[in-house]
Design goal:
Length: about 100
């Protein structure tokens, strides 16, 4: 996380597995719903960044912004818990530290 003026930015990179998806169309249903819920519940910006051609896998990048460090951690924790509680599998989660000098 980095301090950005009066706020903080955090990034989650998540790998999802959709065992019930039998086609790209089926996968898209899960991805579209997950993105919408993350945006609505946590105010996150979400992008599907990898595995576009695979039926049962997706990698999403989830970015959250908050005024305080504790608030940001709560948002990221909540997003991760929500993803883990869905009908698809949360395979991997990475929290990224963003260095503004890079």
């Amino acid at each position: 996380m980095i301090s950005v003026g009066d706020g903080y930015v955090g990034i989650l990179v998540v790998e999802l597995h959709f065992p019930e998806a039998g086609s790209l169309k089926g996968k898209r249903k899960y991805v579209k719903s997950a993105k919408a819920q993350l945006q609505h519940r946590f105010g996150a910006s979400v992008a599907e960044v990898d595995h576009h051609e695979l039926w049962q896998r997706a990698r999403l990048t989830v970015a959250c912004v908050a005024r305080g460090h504790r608030e940001l951690e709560e948002l990221l924790d909540g997003a991760e818990r929500w993803l883990a509680g869905q009908e698809f599998d949360l395979v991997r989660v990475e929290r990224r530290v963003v260095d503004p000098d890079d």
